[in-house]
Amino acid sequence: MISRFSGLSAFPLTPLQDDEVDERAFAGLVERLGAAEVDSITALGSTGSYAYLSPDERARVARLAVKHAGGTPVFVCVADLRTSQVLAHVRSAEAAGAAGILLTPMTYQPLTADDVFELFRTVTEHTDLPVIVYDNPGTTHFAFTTGLYARIAELPRIASIKIPGVPNDSVRARARVAGIRAVVPEHVTIGVSGDASAATGLNAGCDAWYSVIGGTLPEPALTITRAAQRGRTAEAVAESERLAPLWDLFAEFGGSLRVTAAIAEHLGLAPAQCLPLPIQGLTEAQRARVAAAVRDLDLG
Amino acid sequence: MISRFSGLSAFPLTPLQDDEVDERAFAGLVERLGAAEVDSITALGSTGSYAYLSPDERARVARLAVKHAGGTPVFVCVADLRTSQVLAHVRSAEAAGAAGILLTPMTYQPLTADDVFELFRTVTEHTDLPVIVYDNPGTTHFAFTTGLYARIAELPRIASIKIPGVPNDSVRARARVAGIRAVVPEHVTIGVSGDASAATGLNAGCDAWYSVIGGTLPEPALTITRAAQRGRTAEAVAESERLAPLWDLFAEFGGSLRVTAAIAEHLGLAPAQCLPLPIQGLTEAQRARVAAAVRDLDLG
């Protein structure tokens, strides 16, 4: 049986307009993902700006995601700085009809491994939903070890681990994924993130791709995912290499979020300046380069 | 005229019990600071767990701080991830009767210098309160440059800059403070943080000490501050060196917050496990060492 926590999980933006969630734009992004037949939709990921939204906004966005997903499973990120706040988001995700939850150890004061383990233990004791362990050191500044993955993966209801980008080198990438695979139970899938390394990660044995770009441009992300799933490793790599100008812009412009938001705005999928302030998004000159890449790569 | 933003600003904890603010304990900590005659009290700093509290909790704590401060000026941290949330905290601080606000660029997605400047610009346009620029890279992961200090310090209502710890070497510390002093207007005070380097910072020309330990143990912090203010640099250094076992525990146990909370709990100033989960605080073995240091240093 193929786990629900495999294949392409697409992370839509949660576009804002005048500091309020643009529900129509969000619904449109989600419907587009359902129509493209992604394997799952992760609402309110880092790409979905969960960290910037109020509990009420997050509850509402979770409901909208399930409503507009057309039956595609929806995962919802429940992370927050305080355990009791996380549990409140868990209840909202359950009420929305989420098929699973993502949990990352959001930090302000640095957390210890024991703090993080206890957070996961508490959450898994308070829900029947499957849990995706969300390792995102670029935003949380928490460094998971493989040993901590193993410890958390033994908890009930842990369904998947979303790992950061894998090494570019395919041998090293395979060793990295095998090293995790060796210490977590078989039913726990491993999903790569860091879009630029997705093809390498999938070819190296990752079961899933938790994808930023897939939330806005599902077609090329599906091309990579389906090729890798069918063992056509060269095809997956070729599509990823075709998209290299996009990965280069991610690197040059400080990450995937601002570039992806600019793409969504350029394509009319999100209103202008759709990220939460103080994040201003790309400059006009940067946006022009993004638009040129979208055109050159025929992504429009 | 001596600025209100000089001398010892003491940062009380906001103790929790069973995931709710322990208002009696908080009021007790604030009264203790007023009685000790610290120069100001900063409520809801990082030490005061602002990042973990709801808007309502923060508004309530700000009001309690002013009520129990006995006339000592109270500054309130208004930071949050989203600009509109920051502005809501500003309104709460104003309503509470705060004498100033602290603003740090709390981050989830990394911010650019322009994002941070615009955040400060927006806030200074929306309040008449003096603003303390709060540079805390250990929690925000945002790196201010001296140039960005200068740019922000030109905004109206900027009253002070809270800088991270200065170099241990007094010559380098003096150069660091002079380098900032040279580029910010005269009315903007410079306050050191990082308790272990406070004596060095004050002796190097800092106007203020924004102090974690001073929020729980005001007496030794005042000893250092008053000595430095009177030009008795050796006395300030001697008291700081006497407290070296405490600074060593800060370093060994991952920062000042967990140790200071353990001290407050040990002295009966806060309930057990007073930090917000998932922060578990120190282990029993670590607490025993903190208690021994408190006894050996006669801090009880």
TrEMBL record, chains A, B:
CDD domains per UniProt: DHDPS-like
InterPro entries named in the record: DapA-like (IPR002220)
EC annotation from Swiss-Prot or TrEMBL: 4.3.3.7
Example GO molecular function: 4-hydroxy-tetrahydrodipicolinate synthase activity
Superkingdom of origin: Bacteria
Pfam families (UniProt xref): DHDPS
Keywords noted in UniProt: Lyase
Similarity comment: family membership: Belongs to the DapA family.
Record protein name field: 4-hydroxy-tetrahydrodipicolinate synthase
Encoding gene (name): dapA_2
